[in-house]
Structure formats: structure tokens, C-alpha cells
DNA sequence: CTGCGTGATGTTGTACACAACAATAAAATC
DNA sequence: GATTTTATTGTTGTGTACAACATCACGCAG
């Protein structure tokens, strides 16, 4: 079903997840599952069995259900009695509203309680930019998604407004899967991937430059523009592909 | 502890909550508990026993825990192992960031997918305005909070952007308790209540007028201004009161 | 009288058995 | 042979017993 090459074994599961209190454990399981969903390790429509997950993480169904309940409240899965817990399917049109909101929030990060980036943070941006440059050399969809995710978290840390951070994160995780899913269906998959990585690299360079001089408002403006354009490109290519293959 | 006069029996519990599927039942319990928290039926710091709630709603602890988990994720309660589920305490300073965000989102409701109000919706606004006028005549803190809540939901229905609605609601329920809590501690409780109701009535009249001519951008601007000013008034009176009684 | 340890009590977290429900396949009936 | 009915299997939702943990009271030594 998925054109994304995934490996048989999923990363970071029952290894060193035991330590810490019960809250930390649940938080870690939550983070792992959310990441898997967003990187399409779990494809939209896939059924997640609670007991399978319980076995993998070496707990009972109870804490797993706690995690799945949160993922359901956040719109990433949907549990159906007697059937299973299904990873929600998504399409670009349904996510348009989320994108519109993300565009606005991106600008707010530079306005509401911006934190002046210190040397360490700037270094983190530069490191990420370097990773992105190796990505341009050897394009890979999954690596692209991962760098994109790290980049988001780094940007999100530029505001001290906690609720804004939380909400931006929520919306990010609702939308980020759509790129991998849509792109993987395209005929011109490799070409689109290369083009998108190039554009992303340019955006990142621009933003890192703005971060270096400490102008977070500019960062907000750049991000706003890029999120908006990224959505439009995605929608266009998705619709073009849909009409080519015979609509719906 | 609370200066708000509450009655012995809490409304809307085990009566007609049985009907519907399991999801609807959980949703209803959630709504009831959330409302109780926001109207200070459960005061900040109060301990909610899972088994007590389970008895009241005539279910086991399991679905109650499902609801409490969501309330915890939304920041209204916090479960502590071996202690209890405690209604989160709040103070005006901690909520400043939430208010800043709400101010921005209020404006977005008029911008993102605004829905032209039909006759029925306008009528709902006018009905609410009438309720507010009776409130001016006979001030009552709890009724004020309830009308405020209804007003919020009505305003929130003016955008078709679902994620924006959900997030606005989330932030609203995080902040709305602070007014009742702060006001109830004030020396000049009655005077502040009367003044606040008068201001609220004026805001409502302005907004209803803007709704009637269908200008949702203006609605957004008015709300933005009022949320902002309301917060400032609250913070000032809270701090003035704190210094008067000896800081802390 | 104070400080510390220890047991009793109460509450949430976990695990597990079972009920409710959905889907599929098999079988019976027309 | 097609269709309806029924049985079987698989999954989530619920209830409940028990474990883990925190708190408080009580006793006891200093």
C-alpha cells in the first residue's frame, strides 16, 4: 500500500523504555506511537491491536489504552468497539482548515513571548542545516520528514508561550503525515521529492539566517509564507494526480 | 473556602445520562465535570475521588478514568498516584500567556472561514442579550458565568474552521474559572461584580449589533479588545487585593 | 517536648477476566 | 444457486481485584 520503503523492525520500542515513573512511561509510549503514525510506519487505515502494542511495550492493555485515548482526542486514531483502533485517514482538503490556522500561528511564534536564541540554540539550527545539506545530496523521504520534524521542534522552542507551543505541536502532528502520503502516490515521486527538499533547504537557510541575527518576527513571516506555499503545492499536485488517475 | 454560594446538590448527574452509546456517555460525563470545574462547583485544589464519581454516574472507575485523563491532558485536573485527582489551581499570572493567545484567536474567528449568521443565529444572540439584561437587573456571579459561557459558544459557532473552534474552546475553559475565583476573594466583591456585568452587557450589545449587520471582522476586533481589557482589569484588582492583604 | 520511625488508611495505577459488539464464514432454507 | 440465518472468531469497552504509592496518626526514644 505505501510506496515509502519501511523496514520490518520498528525503532525504539521495548528497549530502554522501562525506567522512570508511570507518567514518563506513558509519555514515552505516546511519543513513539505518534511518531510512527506521522512517519507512516502505521499507514492511514491500519488497525492497531491494543494487545499487540501491550506485548511490545511490555505492559498491560491499560496504559496502552490511556495513550490511544489521547491519540484519539488529538485526532490521530479512532477506536471502534469490536473492530479495532484505526489510524485516521486524511486528505488534503480536510486539512485545509488546519493549515490556515497553522499559517497564523507560525507568525504568532515570533510575536508572543519570543525568546532570544542563545549560542547553543543557534548552533542547533546550524547543525540541522548541515543535516539538511547532506539530505540534498542524497534525497530520502523518511529522512526529510524526520529533519522537518526536528526543525519544527526547534522553531517551536523560540517562543516561551507554553500554550502556543502545545497547540502548534498539536496541529503540526495533525498535518505532517499528509506530505508523505500524498507524495508517495505521485507518479513523479522522485522528482517532487527532490524539488521539495531543495525548497525546504532554501527555507531553512533563510530562517537560520534570521535566527542568527535574532529577528524572530522575520522568522515568523518566512515560515508563514512557506507553510502556505507548501500547502498549495501539495494540494495542486494532489488534485492534478487525482484528475490524471480518474478523479476520486 | 469558596465565597460563591453553591447548593448542596449538584445538577445533572445520574438522571438521564444513560441513553446513547458508550462514547456519548463518556462525552456527557466529560461535559458535566468540565462545567463543574469551570463554575467552581469543584474548587481549585479540591480532590475528586474516582470511586465517588463512578458511583454518582453509575459506572465503574474505568470510564471515569477515561474522562479524567482527558481533563488532565487539557490541564483542568492533575492525577497524583496515591493521593487523588486534584483540580488544578490557577493564578492570573500563569494564565497571562493563555490570555495573550486567546486575544489573537478571537480575531481569527472573524477571518478564517467566517459563517454568515442566519436569522436563527441572530435570534439566539438577541435571546442571550435579553438574558444579560435581566442579569444587569439582578446581578448573580454564577448566572454571569453561565451566560458568559453560552455567549462564548455562540460566538465560536461563527467560524466554520473546526480546529480553530476546538482550540478556542480549550483555551476558554482553561481561563474562565479565574474570574470567579479572583472576584470571590475581593473585598469589594459585589461592586466589582456589578461593574463587570455592566461592562459585559455593553460588550454584548456591541457584538450583537455587529452580528446583525453581519460584519464578523468587527466582531473579532471588539472581542479582542474586550478579552484584553477584561484580563487587565482582573490582573489589576487581583494584584491590588494581594498587596492589600499582605502579598503572599 | 520534639523528632523520627512505623503502621494503618486511603487513593490512584495496573492487570486481567468478562461483556458488548462487529465481521466473517459456514450452513441451512427456499 | 442465491439468500438468509447462525455460529465462530476477533476486538474494544467495562468491572474489579490487587499493587504501588502517599499521607497521617500514633508511639517511642532522645
Automatic annotation (TrEMBL), chains A, B:
Name of the protein in its database record: GntR family transcriptional regulator
PROSITE patterns: HTH_GNTR
Domain of life of the native organism: Bacteria
Organism phylogeny: Bacteria, Pseudomonadati, Pseudomonadota, Alphaproteobacteria, Hyphomicrobiales
Keyword Mitochondrion annotated: no
PANTHER family from the UniProt entry: GNTR FAMILY REGULATORY PROTEIN, TRANSCRIPTIONAL REGULATOR, GNTR FAMILY
Keyword Magnesium tagged: no
One GO molecular-function entry: DNA binding
One Pfam family linked to the record: FCD
SUPFAM superfamilies: GntR ligand-binding domain-like, Winged helix' DNA-binding domain
Organism: Nitratireductor arenosus
Occurrences of domain HTH gntR-type (ranges): 23-90
Keyword annotations of the record: DNA-binding, Transcription, Transcription regulation
Coiled coil (residue ranges): none
